[in-house]
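Exercise: predict the fold of this chain.
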Amino acid sequence: MDEMGQFPTKVLDGLREALELGRIMVGRVEHERVPMPARFQLIGATNPCACGGGAPGACECDEGSRKRYIGRLSGPLLDRFDLRVAVARPEVEQLFGGEPGESTAQILPRVVVARRMALDRGGVLNTALDEHGLNEFAPLTKAAGDMLYRELERGRLTARGLHRVRRVSRTLADLAGESGEIDEKHVITALGMRSRIGLSAVGQAA
C-alpha cells in the first residue's frame, strides 16, 4: 500500500483483524459469520504529510494538517507491523551513483538458511510463533530480557509489540547463524526497526 496516509481511517483499521489473526469474519443477513483465510504480508509506505515535505524544511502543511494526515494511521494498526522503518531523504551523492547496497541475489542464500533453521527448530516460521513458542524457541538472555522489561515499564512497548520484537530478534539471530538464546544486540536492532510514528516524528521528518 503506497501513500497509506491517503486512505480513509476506516479502510486502514479494517486490516487489523487480518494482520493479527490471518483471517477475517464474513457475515451475511440471517447467516452466521464465517471465517475466511486472509494471511498476507503487508508492506506500506507514507509521506509524513500531504505535501510530501517538498525541499528539506519546506513543508507547506500546518500542524493541524499534519496531525490529521498521520492520524489516519492509528496506534493499534501500527502496532501490528513487525517493522516500522523511517526512510531518510537520500543524499545527492546517492542519487548520482553512490555505493550500492547488497542485491537480493546476495541476500537470498542467508534468508533460505534462516528459514530452514526456523522450520527445523519449531516446525513453523518465526512469524507464526505464539507466546509459548517464543518462550521455547526464542529464549532471551538476562540482559535482553531486562531491556525489554524496561521498554514495557516505560510505556515504549506494548504487549503485542513485545511479541513482535521477540520474533524479529529471533529472525535476526537466525540470519546471523546464531540458534541459541537471543542476546541484547539482536533486541537492540529489532527495537531500532520499530520507529515511533506520530505528530512529533512528523515534525522532525518535515
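Check your answer against the key: Strands lie at 23-28, 31-37.
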